[in-house]
From TrEMBL:
Keywords annotated in UniProt: Membrane, Transmembrane, Transmembrane helix
Gene3D superfamilies for this protein: Tetracycline Repressor, domain 2 (1.10.357.10)
Organism (species): Natronorubrum sulfidifaciens JCM 14089
Keyword set includes Transmembrane helix: yes
Domain named SHOCT: residues: 80-106
InterPro entries referenced in this protein's UniProt entry, alphabetically: SHOCT
Protein's name according to its UniProt entry: SHOCT domain-containing protein
Length: 129
């Protein structure tokens, strides 16, 4: 019933379904054992808790998506050597010859990694013939 992200998280619909089943059992038990006023009080608390669960799951999902977006943009920039090389060239740290030599080395390294079967998703370069 959990989502397939590997984090063992439940969707909002699953949380509400579980909560309502448990709430029904609790309300019936309180109604039978304690009386209608206690059952009414428990029902009111459960309704408030449903809204609280909804609010917290929305807030956590927003924070998770913001964190994932920031982390993915940060890691993409950190692991992309071509972008770093281009930034250094644009800043004037590298001459034309140095830039081309370093770029050629990156292309050769990418081709060797592809030949060895190593994943190079962060470095998608093709040799310009």
């Amino acid at each position: 019933m959990g989502s397939e992200t590997g984090k063992n998280r439940y969707s909002l619909t699953e949380i509400f379904a579980i909560k309502f089943v448990l709430a029904d059992i609790l309300i019936i038990a309180v109604l039978l054992l304690a009386g209608p006023w206690f059952a009414l009080a428990i029902t009111a608390l459960l309704v408030v808790s449903v809204f609280l669960v909804w609010y917290l799951t929305q807030r956590v999902d927003r924070v998770d998506s913001d964190t994932e977006t920031a982390a993915s943009s940060r890691t993409a920039a950190e692991r992309d050597p071509v972008t770093k090389l281009q930034e250094r060239y644009a800043a004037g740290d590298l001459s034309d010859a140095e830039f081309e030599a370093k770029l050629e080395r990156l292309i050769d390294a990418n081709e060797r990694a592809d030949a060895a079967g190593v994943e190079t998703a962060a470095l998608d370069l093709e040799r310009a013939e």
